[in-house]
Amino acid sequence: MTALSPAPPPTPEEQPLSGDDGVLLSWVDLRTDPYSTGRDGAREVGPTLTLLFDPESPYRDRIGHVVLFYRKPTHDPKRHEDFAATDATRREIERLGARRRIRVELVPWHGEDPTDHRLLFEFLNPKVAELGERFAGRPLVVHISPGTPAMQTVWVLMAEMGLIRPPFVAVKSLRRAHRAGRPAVVPVRLDIPTFYKAFQRARPRHAPPLEAGDRILFDPRHFVSERLRRLYADARRFARLNVPVLILGERGTGKTTLASWIRSNSPFRDPKKDASWPSVPCSQYTPETMRAELFGYVKGAFTDARQDTEGLLHAADGDTLFLDEIGDISRDLQRLLIRALEEKRFTRVGATVPEESRFRLLTATNLPWDDLKDRLDPDFLDRISVLVLEVPPLREVRDDLPWLWRHLFQEALRRAQIPAGQVRLTDADHERIVRHLSRHPLPGNLRDLLRVAYHLLALCAEDAD
Prior knowledge:
Layout: E1 22-27, E2 35-37, E3 43-45, H1 47-53, E4 63-71, H2 80-96, E5 103-109, H3 117-134, E6 140-143, H4 149-160, E7 168-173, E8 185-187, H5 195-201, H6 209-213, H7 226-239, E9 245-248, H8 255-264, E10 279-281, H9 287-295, H10 312-315, E11 320-324, H11 331-343, E12 345-346, E13 355-356, E14 360-365, H12 369-375, H13 378-384, E15 387-390, H14 401-415, H15 427-438, H16 446-464
Parallel strand pairs: 1-4, 1-6, 4-5, 6-7, 9-14, 9-15, 10-11, 11-14
Antiparallel strand pairs: 2-3, 7-8, 12-13
């Protein structure tokens, strides 16, 4: 066998990752970690050390923190074989990774049956979510090779269902005797299309700064308040219908995120458009440019029309069109959109032949209902508000503030490009901040939470200096 030894100093092109280096998540294999004995009596390197230190592993010198899960049954807490293998693996990682000072964290599972998929999932799902928040912005490397088949299956299901917060990669390691010409570590992907993965990937074409980053925040799995649970129960039902939906809510409440959620959870979605699906903020355009943006135009239709150009209605064929700030759309465009909604046909600016578009319409506004009625033609308002959803302001869902604050704080760390671990707040710190936030009206909603997080980071940076 090829013995493992501490890695040599890296070349300039292979400098170890710094604050954003990888975090390995792995069970410990009782039979093969850290080493096992082959049929010829020779010592074989186990799967965990293979991933971390094998010269052929792409993750050698790319992992700065290791989380090892191991079994510690409640009925026999002093069971020693699980912990013995785990502690031996930890000591070998620390010895071989001494130059990089790899940190190893041991996390016990108090389950009785390592073949019970449900119990394993109930343990891993919240743990991995917690680790995703703790190491926000750092790539998670989920190692599926060690452990029982049930442990491996749960890892794969969580990865495929979109339950692991990006960035992450699921991999398996191959010990040297089993490679047969294959790499030491290979990715594991089934590419099963699921709602959560689609929701995480989907991004409106013209998303404002906060909305572009908060899609993970509005995750129904985290909801505490009955108001948010009811909102997304309604949204799930509405999502399946090819009927216009109007989303109401104050600024910063996550209306764009809700629109993206509805699209991702509906049949009116073209996966090829997930990276930039058809949407437009109506207030950012004049009536003339808005018409060109929506309907497209033919060459020569106006001064700068140098070529035929497709509009958002064309792009939304078989998909969803989202019109944000709908209260700012002109009366002329409202009339044109009524025809497009009723007939599923439109005509480009300067053209004479209509085109078809089987689109589903979502709209949103932060205007109160009475103001919206004053601005929009009654016929147009009737057509876009067949179904209505209202996103509550944070002051009306204060039970959700604790998890929302923690998510926004991690988002602020990521955007400010502050390495994980440089700013650490205790649970007591977070609880104290949430108590103060709960007494504030938070007129900017999610944006106010992000603003508080930025100010806090600035103070921490000043203290560090």
